[in-house]
Amino acid sequence: MDQPLWYYSLVYEAPSHKAMKKLTMQFIGARKVKITAISTIRNSSSDFRKKWLTKVEKLGLANA
Question: What's the half-sphere exposure (Cβ side, CA atoms, 13 Å) at 32?
Answer without folding.
Answer: 1
